[in-house]
Every structure is written in C-alpha cells, then in structure tokens.
Give the backbone structure.
Amino acid sequence: MNSTLLDSADSVLHHKPRAILSVLLGALLSGALCLTPSLVQAKQVTLNSPDNQIAVTITDDNARPQYQVSFNDKPVINLSELGLSFISIGELSDQFKLINTKTNSVNSQWQQPWGEQQWMQDHHNGVIATFSDGQYQFDVEFRAFNDGIGFRYHFPKQHQLTDLAINRELTTFAIPEPEKATSWWIPARGWNRYEYLYQKTPVLDIDRVHTPYTIKLDNGVHLSIHEAALTDYAAMTLDQRRGGILRADLTPWSDGVKVKTQAPFSSPWRTIQIAPKATGLLNSSLILNLNEPNKLGDVSWVEPGKYAGIWWGMHIGENTWGSGDKHGATTSETKRYMDFAAASGFIGVLVEGWNLGWDGSWFHNGDVFSFTQSYDDFDIKAVADYGKQLGVRLIGHHETSGSVTNYRKQMDDAYDLYEKNGVTQIKTGYVADGGDIKRVDENGIVRHEWHDGQFMVNEYLHSIEQAAKRKISINTHEPIKDTGLRRTYPNWISREGARGQEFNAWGTPPNNPSHTPTLAYTRMLAGPMDFTPGIFDLAPEGLDAVNRVQTTLMKQLALYVVLYSPIQMAADLPKNYAKYPDAFQFIKDVPTDWTTSIALQGEVGEYVVFARQERGGVSDGRDWYLGAITDDSQRTLTIDLDFLDKNTRYQAQIYRDGPDANWQSNPYDYIVETKHVTNADKLELPLATSGGAAIRFKAL
C-alpha cells in the first residue's frame, strides 16, 4: 500500500475521537475496513463539520478528483468534479490519484474593527488533499464549518514551471434533484454587470449566473454558492451544463485567457453556505472566516456612519452632474447640505459632479475626466474647511466611466488632493457596459475587459491599497462582487454590486416589491451594500408613474437595519425629510455599526426580520434595532423579543405601516408609537404590501 496513504490513515485514526476525519480505503464491510487488492484503487477522505451535520467526501473514484457534500446525512452536492486546466500542460484531472492528506482543526475568535458582528467565531475542521498523476500534482484545501464549506486549489512550484495560463477551471457543483430545487439568480456576463432584478426559477432553468447563487432544495435545505478572498484571479460565475451540473466559469481576459499566473499560486475559495432554513444563510460568517486577517494594521481612521449627498437630485432631474444653471455640485449647495448633515448628526456629504468631465458624452468616454480640477463654481478647499467647522466631512467622488488607465494615471494626485483636504472616504464609479472596461496595454493598444475579470480584480484592489496609504476608505460602485476582502482591507468599507435605489428614479421597470427581500438572501450574503435607502418622496411624478419607489415609507426606514452597510446614505433631498420629521427621526437615530446581528424570521424573496445591537454610540451598546420588510404580500408577524438583554427594560419606539397603508395607493399611512417591553415579550407587526417596520429598543 502507498506509504503516504498509510501515514494519512494513521493521522486520521489518531484524531478519530474528535470526529475530524475518516479515511476509507476500499469498501466498508460489517463495520471494518477491508483492504483487498481489488478495492484499494479508489481512495477517499471524509471531513466533518465541528457539529458533525456537514460531511465532505473527497475521492479519486473513476481516476478523477471529485467531492460530494451531505447535510444531516442527505446529499446537498452530489459527486462533483475538481481540477484545473492550463494552456501549456493541459487538464489536471484524468488519472490524478489522491496520494496524501493533512488535517487540522481551528476554534478561535477574531474581532472586526467595524461590522455587523463585533466578534467572529472561526470554528472549522480542515484537510489538504494532494492529487497527482505521477508527473504533476496539486492540492485542494477543504474547510468544514457548521454553516458550510470552502475549498481552494494550491498549485506548487514544480518541473521548472513559472508563467501559467488557466483556460478552464474544472470545478462543478452537482445539485440533487435540480428539477425540484428553487433558485434565485441574476444573469452573468451581461451588459449591466450585477444590476438586474432577481429571477426565481427551478435550477434546471438557469443558464449562466452570478454568485452568490441561492438555492432551496426540495427538502427545504438552503444553499448559497459563492467565493471568498478573490484576489489576482478571475471571478467565478456558474454555467449549467447537463441538468443540475453547474460548472465554475471564470470571466476571461480580452484575449480569452481566464487567469494569468505563476507557480506557486492559490485560487480563491469556492464556498457553499448550508442552512436548514433561509435565515441560517443570513446568520452565516463563512465568507469572512475564509479571508485573511487585516493587513493594514491600525484602522481606527475607518469611520462608519451616515451621510447625505448631492446625488438623488441628479437622478430625478432636479440637478445635473454637468455644469450649467442646474449644476448640483456647487460650493453654496454643498455648504447647504453640510448644514443639513450637521443638524442631523451625519458624518459627511457626498458630492458628485464637482470635477471637470461631466459635460458631453462622458458615459462613452471616461478619458475626459480630471480628478484634480474642479468646475469654477466648486471650491474644494472652501467646502472642506466649512465642513470641518461643523464636524462634517466632504466625501469624495470619482467616476471613471470605465476608463481605468486614465484613472490609474491620475490616482496618486487625486488621492493626494483629497488627503490634503481632509477627505477620508471616496465613492468610486466604473459605469460602463459589462465587457467594456477600457484599458491601454503596455504597447499602447486599447483593450476592453470585464468588470469581474482578473485585470479588474487587481485594479479595484490597487485603488484600495493606494487609498489606505492615505487613510482613505473606498465605497466602490459598479464594483467587482464582494468576497469578504473587507476583513483583509477594512478600508474597503462598502460597495454597490446590485440594482440600487437609483433604478427607482428611471429604471423602467423600477425595483419591484420583492427586490429588497431577495437581496437580503442573495447579494447581501457577500457583504455590505451601499443601497442608498431613505427616499421619502416616493413618487415625484405621481403615484401612477412607472418609475417610482415601490415601497411604503416605513419600508424605507426598515432598510437601514435589513440591508447592512457601515455607511448609510440619507438619500433623499433635505426638503423631503422636513415633511415627515417624526419618521426622519429614525434615520437620525439608527447606527451603522453593530455588536450583534441576528436574522429572526424570513423566506427568500418574501420577507425578512433582522435585529441588531448597537456598538458603542450614545447608548454605550445597550440599544437594539429591528427592521422588517415584506414583498407585495400583506402579512402580520409575531416577533419574540428574547434577543433583548435580560433584566433590562426598553422603550420600544415603533415605526410601522398604518392600517390603510399600501405601497401603490397609500404609501404614507404610518404610525409612530412607543411601548415598554422586556425580553419576555412578543410584538405583533402588521406589514402592508411592500411595507415594513423599524423599531428602536432604547434601554432604560
């Protein structure tokens, strides 16, 4: 028998009392290992989660690296392929045998500098499985947590191999009974990047989809397939081959190559979050736990908080980004917004359209943008100094329109200008059709790349690293999808990466009532989103207009709790908040940084209830907040308040839909009321069609 395999079996037997790993050689007969020559060919290793509910089996059956996953002894991923394919050396798949395993177990805590949860528990069992065909070898590292699994490839330096080009990843995810499994998805490799309304279909009906990709199996188990720690690699989409067989489909460079790399290298983690019900996905910490710890050191300069912005007025046609009589980004208008922000307790004001380039056809030619020269009616030093007097920061904005070479050339000077003026946060934009990111290569030739190809994965991260040198945080719009890198680079404070609020101004169709209850279980599983909630003028052109916000006013409040981001925008115009001061009070009060977050109830695309405990703040972390939203179905929820601290009385400040509320005809019917409660109480919350409820539990 192979000595390395015997060593592996001995290691496993040593750890058997902890249920970390079992190596099965041949067939299991009558509870004993039968090592007959005819059965030694197929080797496999089984990795269990700490609670033993999840089991991952890695095997070389059929002389191919494969894996399968079960949850409570029922398959959630059928036997699926592993491997990589290179242009120079071909596929690492056929005739690759499992030759060695190494195991480990981790149970530790780590602290987020900001986040939806202050303390994170990293509890997993791991194995590194080595496959070889006698000439080449590669490792697959698996980790099994109680909330799912992750695995990644390690390709060591070997046979004088240096430069390598991946033309295919062989990873598949085989979904059991795909004709009975429901899924929620947006198309991949499309012109609008990630900005689509989610579709709900059987797994069999998808073609190529983005991740996170959420699935509900016929037995009720929920899965989310995604990736973690995406650096220097192409993003993974999922391409359905045979029915239910989803292949990892990497986004290519303009020349067709998927990944350009060198040995040794490691891939991002392929992740499968697993939960018996929908809310289990929301309470998962898998993605963050698979990322590297903070590389930036002291990041106390990264500041969560709420902000106002010269932004929504452009979308509804009240202002313009470009110069002229309706120019929004003027010195006087910015000072007016800063007055509003200071009075509301906000940390800053975002200003879009201040820099030269917004006149003319900027959408199709981002080379026109200057990131250091302002329009004549905007004085960056004057507004920054004015904000400092009020305790309000200027929040910067850079729109590249996809011309990343132009941005790269100006980046140092642009970030230096912001640093000089005390700007500590920048919203960056990459508005361009998918596959139309413009770069100029080393030979001066224009190339067009995807937002989620390897080139742009590295370009986005470059901006994060350069900003960090100046203690600046980045909020990326039209981004690469989130894969948990905020743990490693905490100044990557938020991003877009889905259909946001602006589609309600001109989207045709705008976001439907089920959009945000779906985002919670799909896009939000990846990480924070700058959705920009808080629109109070829900239908500027009338309730019958096609483009309008399809929610009640109370649902806009609840979004601040449900859709997590450490920076949240009060997105509407100040004059519209003045019409509903009692409702606006919740936006002023709600924090953006949390000690604890718990998803209490919900179903994908239907409704969701989140409770979050404030970190620090005026209550010293004693206050809790709750947000509940629904789709176009009216429903009444009974909320058990056992998440509240024991031996503490609270004043529940409740903002909820009124009895006649309806998003279509009466979105402004709402009730603000207070009750005294403890953790032994229950609350009934009636939600209107596309309605919501927001509660502050103020500790007494």
